[in-house]
UniProtKB/TrEMBL annotation:
The lineage of its organism: Bacteria, Bacillati, Actinomycetota, Actinomycetes, Actinomycetales. This is Uncharacterized protein. Keywords: Membrane, Transmembrane, Transmembrane helix. The chain crosses the membrane at residues 12-32, 90-112. It comes from Actinomyces marmotae.
């Protein structure tokens, strides 16, 4: 969860507490007001039939005359009773409202907090899902890179066919078991990746399956194992897998290669390359791809161009 989300949730809860506090204070003030009104009413009330004293102005006399009168109980008593009933009813309504607020405010606050928690959980789940998706795509890209590393190494071995023949010729011989398995693993991984369109399976992106269950991942692991096995076997075997005649051919190719790459004149380099191509064509045990011949020609042409320019 991001820090901003936590800060926003705390602000929402603080606002809820402030609003609840204001509401309770307002209702409390109403209760006090109504209680004061009722108190004033009772303190200023009179019993029916009570004798009260009052002053009347005597227009024809110099002094004020005090007179007594009897309070008309029934008439004033009924009005006071109705006023009392209205005041008490209002106070009861206000008190009831305060009680409801006192009980309902914590409940409302708890419900509000739960809603915020659910909202925060939903955001957290979305963040985790997005992060998991990015991580899974990165894992898929890492598997593709591992696949590409082996493919590039195999491509280099085929294109630099002369060096491969001289150092680890078994890599060019499909009859060697380790090399045959390597070629099959290369084709298998390539086919599975092509079938997927270069995209990871939706079930894996959704987290339904794990990486180890992906056919492409298993194919790349198998390819890496077979590459290590094939190169190890080829390094161990050396040129011993070839017939003696072909080993002699490779020895001559090795000596000619020094002339082809560092001969004194363009004519010497050109003659050395032509001889190398002829000798390699006599080797039948190893598989020399067409693109390897093209690579030899491409390496030969710069030597000719250099000789012409000089």
């Amino acid at each position: 969860m991001h820090h901003d989300d936590y800060a926003r949730d705390r602000l929402y809860r603080l606002l809820a507490l402030i609003v609840t506090g204001i509401a309770i204070m307002f209702m409390g003030q109403l209760v006090l007001k109504e209680a004061s009104s009722v108190s004033n009413f009772f303190s200023g009330s009179r019993e029916p039939g009570a004798v009260v004293a009052y002053e009347t102005a005597a227009p024809n006399y110099a002094d004020t005359e005090r007179t007594t009168a009897v309070d008309p109980g029934p008439t004033n008593g009924g009005a006071n009773s109705k006023a009392l009933t209205g005041e008490v009813r209002m106070m009861l309504v206000v008190v009831g409202g305060v009680i409801v607020m006192a009980i309902g405010a914590p409940v409302a606050y708890h419900a509000f907090s739960k809603a915020l928690e659910r909202r925060r959980q939903v955001r957290a789940d979305k963040h985790r899902a997005a992060a998991a998706l990015v991580e899974r795509r990165e894992q898929w890209s890492a598997v593709e890179k591992r696949h590409q590393v082996v493919q590039d190494a195999w491509f280099d071995a085929e294109m630099d066919v002369v060096t491969t023949m001289l150092t680890r010729p078994a890599l060019l011989d499909p009859a060697v078991p380790a090399t045959g398995r390597l070629i099959e693993a290369l084709e298998n991984a390539r086919a599975i990746h092509a079938a997927s369109g270069g995209e990871p399976p939706a079930a894996w992106l959704d987290g339904i399956s794990d990486l180890e269950s992906l056919p492409y991942y298993r194919a790349v692991l198998d390819l890496e194992r077979n590459w290590r096995a094939a190169t190890t076997a080829a390094d161990k075997a050396g040129r011993a897998i070839l017939p003696r005649t072909e080993r002699r051919i490779l020895a001559e190719v090795e000596s000619l290669l020094a002339i082809a790459t560092g001969g004194a004149s363009a004519n010497e380099r050109d003659t050395a390359y032509a001889r190398i191509k002829t000798l390699l064509g006599r080797i039948k045990t190893l598989r020399i791809p067409e693109k390897a011949w093209q690579a030899i020609d491409a390496a030969h042409r710069p030597q000719i161009a250099a000789g012409v320019s000089t």
